[in-house]
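Internal ticket #5521
Category: modeling
Description: The requester needs a full-assembly model to guide mutagenesis choices. All entity lines are attached below as received. Residue total reported by intake: 848.
Assigned to: D.W.
Attached entities:
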Amino acid sequence: MSTVLDVNGISRSFGGLKAVDEVTFTLNKGDVAALIGPNGAGKTTCFNLLSGALTVHSGSVLFGGHDITHWQPHQRARAGIGRTFQIAATFRSMTAIENVEAALMAAGLRTDTASQLLQDVGMAGLTGTPVTALAYGDVKRVELAMALAADPVLLLLDEPTAGMAADERQKIMERISDLVRARGITVLFTEHDMDAVFGYASRILAMDQGRLIADDSPDAVRNDARVQRVYLGEPETGDA
Amino acid sequence: MGFYFAQFLTGLASASSLFLVAAGLSIIFGVTRIVNFAHGSLFMLGAFIAYSISQKFGFWLAVPLAALSVGAVGWAMERTVLSRLYGAPELFQLVATFGLVLIVQDAALWIWGPTDLLGPRAPGLTGVVRIFDQPIPEYDLFLIAVGVSVLAAIWWMFTRTRFGILVRAATEDREMLQALGVRPARLFQATFFIGAALAGLGGALEMPRQPASLLMDLNIIAEAFVVVVIGGMGSVTGAFLAALLIAELNAFGILILPEITLVAAFAAMAVVLVIRPYGLLGRPATSAPHAVEIQPPQTLGQTGRITALGLVIALVVLPFVAGDFVIVLTADIMIFALFAAGLHFMMGTGGLVSFGHAAFFGIGAYAAALLVNNAGLGMEIALFLAPVFAAIGAAVVGWFAVRLSGVYLAMLTLAAAQILWSASVQWQDVTGGDDGILGIWPAAWASGTTAYYYLTFALTTSGIVSLMMLARGRFGILLRAGRDAPARAQALGIDIKLRNWTAIVIAGSAAGLAGGIFAFSKGSVFPDTLAIPNSVDALVMVLLGGLHAPAGPILGAGVFALLEDSLSRLPYWRALLGAAVVGIALFAPGGIAGSLSKWLRRRREGTA
């Protein structure tokens, strides 16, 4: 199995706080890995370090064999890393389909596949609607279609179901799962919804206080003593 | 040795006024997130008011009373205009304070007249002290003491008083403060009062050093912007250090080469920004507000397209039916439409706000003039190179600008334009100073009114159409993507900095082409092509026409030219223009095209 992402001891602190502390892991082609951990564990910082939105203070990141540690976000995107944001980010002066067309243009691709991409994420109608007029669940679908537009090798999804209704969560996770499997995309996602995590991840990485405390199969992580302690110690995440 | 120390003290004394103005600007920005372009006007008012009071009550009473009066003016500005704009996009806040500059300037002209007024010297401080055998004016030492005392007083206020702590809290996190139950309105008013009073104090203290004049406002604001950018937005100590740096650069630069001082300030800013993008003591903004309203660009409908076609036909046949006056006026409108179209492109599509767009217009005009007069080139080559030179200028300014957030771009472009303007006035050997450069005539084949009209028509139309196509095409769509959601755009592989930089260069070269055409049409170039009012004109045209409408700059330039033609005969018409600017920012952010299309839509819906 070929290695897609190779993360070596990356760290990042904010003032005195070590938000991400010596995190090391690798992702292999086809992995659907979940990054979990209580609030403030460093998941989003970790994501931003991988997408290039933040720079690492130490450590290195290899993607497809290239050292991308000091690459800008747009360079990483062009190399094949797609992402979505915790709060879906779209181009608000555009319609749903224009958003996807812009994503295709940014990748230097033809724009005629835009409506197919929207169909793939479950948005057959409303393609001509301004994104500002869409329901939040649909905005997240548009963003997902944008992230898929460049046909990424690695997809980083920051809380793909956040802000969605319970029945919608399952639907979007199913879609994502089908899409990435069909396209052979490697996925790293963060999620608070444990049903989504254990239902769809083939691997789970658990973080606590900036450190990686587990990296294993869902069953093994479920029974991991340290993970249990972290979660039981944080009662509010028990039902999340 | 003694001489240099004396020069150093002179620098320190100058730093005091600059610090007072920059500190006020910085405090107001920190709390309200508004960059107050009218802050230089408050400084100027301080000088004029102090002069008037001193005539009756003497120097020492005039200084504090002037500071308090200017504080009251600042408070009134906040109440009447700015408080209505706290939620508005950055652009409209900036533009509104820009309108206030025009209003204050004409108000000062109306009250105090056009001549410079030299105030009294400070009783008790008229002598000199000998330090290292060099005469140092006592008043300079007093100014240094005032600067340091004010810094200490501000420090005390920020760390020891409830008000100061709230101000700092507001600078850090405005939402949190509101959640804690502090009424921001009162805090904002107080901040404006204090910030304005500091500017007024700075102006009043200048009385013995320089006469109160109508040029004070824009000169000091350009320097204050440089200081605030170097020191870090919102940092008072940073402003102090930066004021010191700039004032000393001036004090010593003038010994080496007087012309270099202007460039030195800009160069210092450039160096600091490269090393510390948020200034010496500044911190990155927690949230970057949108410079312009995010809304879809309007498109030319059926009616619009027919109108455009009609307009082109009318422009082609115009010389057959109209007299010389109308032909020249129309050519002027086309030149300004191109100038505005470039600005419209970067502001509307790119969300990049320039307040010194005349810099590029002026570079184009001067480049054309100098190439013809000094290098002996022909009109054709000069017109080709004018936009190239402007593009180079835009590339330099833009290189810094794209590394920073929206307000910095506006401040940077304004400072750059003001510095170029000063250079054009002072560098007489090359630019001819205020006398300008004369005798720049078109080539023989284009020298008739009609011939030059058609040349203007061809060049401006192709320029404007190219800009429209760029905005609608792939380049424009991705530029707009970067404006709408920078992080999202980057995550899709868009190099936002490069794209924004390119947009600034394109806008700059459009302005440069307009400037070149303008130079040949008038046969001369003067410093006012670079001056702030010229930048304001372009800005007003864009806003008047409509920021999100493709026809905005054309409509804006047309209406503006007609208004100017009728209004400029009135006294104090700049103030009227300023009031119009404030009015657009407050009541009609969509401009004429925006209002028109809203009206058309409503009518269509009404009849359907």
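Resolution: model delivered.
Comment from assignee: Chain B is about 75% helix and 0% strand.
Ticket closed.
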